Amino acid sequence: MPELPEVEVLARHLRPLLLGQTIRGVDIRRPQVLLPTDPAAFQRRLLGATFTGLQRRGKYLLFELRHARTPLTLLGHLGMTGRMYLAPRRDPLPKHTAVVLRLGARNFIYEDTRYFGRLTLDLASAEKLGPEPDQFTPAQFHAKLKTSRQAVKVKLLDQTLMAGVGNIYASEALFRAKISPRRAAGTVSGPRARTLLTAIRAVLQEAIDSGSTIPLNFAGKKTDGLFYFGRAATASEYYTERLNVYDRAGKPCNHCQFPIKRIVQAARSTFFCGQCQKD
DNA sequence: AACGCCGCCTGATCGC
DNA sequence: TGCGATCAGGCGGCGT
């Protein structure tokens, strides 16, 4: 699932490709991904607009455009299965294409198998986000954790606490910090909160540096037609190969060899080492 | 007001 | 074998 590193790598990939491009056509195949923006308003406001920039905020993409002299922002989210990429104008559209922005020689394609993502002119959801992981002091982070009795793993998924951490990197950061995912957030001490914040930043940065966990725009089967972003040249160099706990239930811990555990918290899988993460 | 729970979706996997 | 049931999961909305 795309989290902060995947979205950051995607933003870096798309930014130079989109800059200066003008939207000449807007095809809406799945209107629900625009919500709450009305499809007619979406088309009217985007047609003729030119891309002037692309930012990332948490797991969101902020497409900056100008229409005549009026600036506007388009908000993108990949949900679970979303992909956004440029493809030649004449390429057939994938089965689960949600929106196509026609840019001339190329199309900007947003496809999403489960349609959990968004491409909308409503910015409200991005405005609720907590700070980026690198814009937090350890004291602020500790203060936020203190107010919660939820398990710390569950709390890390709360985007209003901190933006960008999802299910994969929450487990990975807790392993690195040697903190049990079951510990109540409010009982994490000041020094442990500092350690956790450092671990979160390190895990996210390493994933960005290795080109994110997964290729984000592969078409069709996983083994076919891969188009990689970032520095890695092959799938084995992606961050997936560096994950210590995520999706490794039953496999030996890379540190102590004990089998990695899988538990369910708030209806989501958590992976951790019961030996290394006792507090 | 923090928190639990549901609905949204499809494809992979499971069970009989 | 084949097919229906179950599950996964980010996030908004809603109820407590």
Number of helices, where a helix is a run of at least 4 consecutive DSSP H or I residues: 7
Biggest sheet, strands in spatial order? 1-6-7-5
- The proportion of strand residues reads 15-25%
**What's the total number of strands?**
10
Description:
- With 279 residues, this protein is of the alpha+beta class.
- It is built from 7 helices and 10 strands.
- The strands form 3 sheets. It has a 4-stranded antiparallel beta sheet with strand order 1-6-7-5, with helices on one face.
- β6 and β7 (106-112) form a beta hairpin.
- The chain starts with a helix and ends in a 7-residue tail after the last strand.
- Mean pLDDT is 89; it is low at 216-237.
- It binds a DNA duplex (16 and 16 nucleotides) through residues 1-2, 32, 59, 77-81, 96, 112-118, 125, 147-150, 157, 159, 166-167, 266-269.
Main attributes of the structure:
DNA-binding; 4-stranded antiparallel beta sheet; 7 helices
Give the structure's gist in a few sentences:
The chain is of the alpha+beta class and 279 residues long. Helix content is 26%, strand content 22%.
Ordered list of secondary-structure elements with their pairings:
Layout: H1 4-18, E1 25-28, H2 39-46, E2 50-57, E3 60-67, E4 70-77, E5 82-88, E6 97-102, E7 106-112, E8 118-120, H3 124-127, H4 138-146, H5 152-156, H6 167-177, H7 190-209, E9 261-265, E10 268-272
Antiparallel strand pairs: 1-6, 2-3, 3-4, 4-8, 5-7, 6-7, 9-10
Helix pairs in contact: 1-7, 4-7, 6-7
The chain binds a DNA duplex (16 and 16 nucleotides) through loops.
